[in-house]
Amino acid sequence: MSKECTIIRSTEAMVNKAMVPVSSLTKGSHAIVECECPLCGDVFKMKYCEVVNRGHSKCPSCRRGGLGNRIIGKVFGRLTVKERIDGSRVRVDCICGTVEIVETGQLLAGKKNSCGCLARDHMSKVGKSGGGSKHWNWQGGRAAGRKRRSADKEHRAWAKAVMERDNYTCRNCNRRDGAKAAHHLSSYEKDLSQRYNVDNGVTLCYRCHQSFHAHYGNACSPEDYAEFSRKYQEDPEQFRFKSKPSMEGRRKLTWDRVRKLREWYASQTWKNDSAFCRMAAAHYDMNAESIRVIIRNEAWVEHDIPRK
Fold first, then answer.
1. Is it the case that residue 255 has pLDDT exceeding 70?
2. pTM of the entire structure?
3. What is the rounded distance in angstroms from the CA atom of residue 255 to the CA atom of residue 259?
4. Domain boundaries, the chain
5. Using 50, 70 and 90 to split pLDDT, how confident is the model at 145?
């Protein structure tokens, strides 16, 4: 038993209803002795045999890697530790004058930084600052223009009227299932007079709407939609998006990984694609169908995939 790490304050202990000197106790004695932690100075009681077996008299908090009494005086946000209540709680003083008893683990984990005055001060700051450019967290109007349409009641009413007129059916491919969008024939940004005119809107499914803007941009006109509809009826395949691998795997898909997969596939003669896809999917923690699309779909080019 190390003397440097063991401090026994008791001189006598109770054994068989009689007080005996601690020096005469055997190593296996279950007598209760008063000990002092050599790290934080905390005084506590434990069995003599446990002190001997452990070789030290550290308190439970210091044995678990805690601070023990060393936490007294430390500052956590607006809280200052003043006193230890027990092994897991301390008394703290907030800068606003409030006295509380909190869990030590909350302080060490950063979950407790004030008595609640920090949140109250923050909310009062938000309430007094006002909205728009006067708001304390104003960032230059990021949600300006088109991004604010979802919060515009007049725009929502216009979109609902357009879709009800078309019976919630895509005017381009006649689909009724899936998500729908009310599309402006004349540009939303340029033709302000027709912005909420029901005759200036048509109902499109999500795929047709995304495909239209991918080919004609946002500054569109009724002539652009007429051309898109005519070409779609002639050859729908030219407006369909290429299939891409799913991202359900835990690892992110990068261009380097796609290149390595294709090189791995081309370096050997495989019995069939399914065997390679299952092996690669297990190695990269991805879906086997995603691997199949990567090695077969040459439409995937480098700018389609992030490098990191």
1. no
2. 0.37
3. 6
4. 12-63, 72-117, 147-239, 255-304
5. low
